[in-house]
Amino acid sequence: MEDKIKRGNNKKKKGDTFYEAIPATAVAPQEIHLPKIGVKTADFLESVVIFFAGTVEVLLTIRVLLMLFGINGGNLLTYLLYAASYPFVLLLNSGQSQIPEMTNKVLYENIALLFIYFVVFYGLIKVINAFRERNNN
Predict the structure, then answer these.
(1) CB under 8 Å to 111, separation ≥6 — which residues?
(2) DSSP state of 116
(3) φ and ψ of 127, to 5 deg
(4) pLDDT digits (tens, 9 = 90+) for 22-54
């Protein structure tokens, strides 16, 4: 009974906490160490990305120009150009065949793909540069 009386007298005052507070430990921020790519490897990867970016952009630009001039794939050269750029157009495939019909929708999709691929390749180059080793000379 005296136990209950002793506990009853320990009433909390205004501003006291109900439980014992544990001090928070201060954690020092740690630097994140990302894997680094060697300079020669980064240069090689960057040149590969630039090569593929140039190839895709040139093929899509030729495709758009052929479509603007209304040239269909009647001869072997234009058919080859349409067929070479066809895999890159499959991203926004609107049911178009290798040789597209001359509609504005298909033309705008191809122009949009020029910009989409440019942004993707630009992002890849930025990622490669982010992981590149830096010399502190």
Answers:
(1) 64
(2) H
(3) -65, -45
(4) 666 766 677 777 778 888 888 999 999 999 999
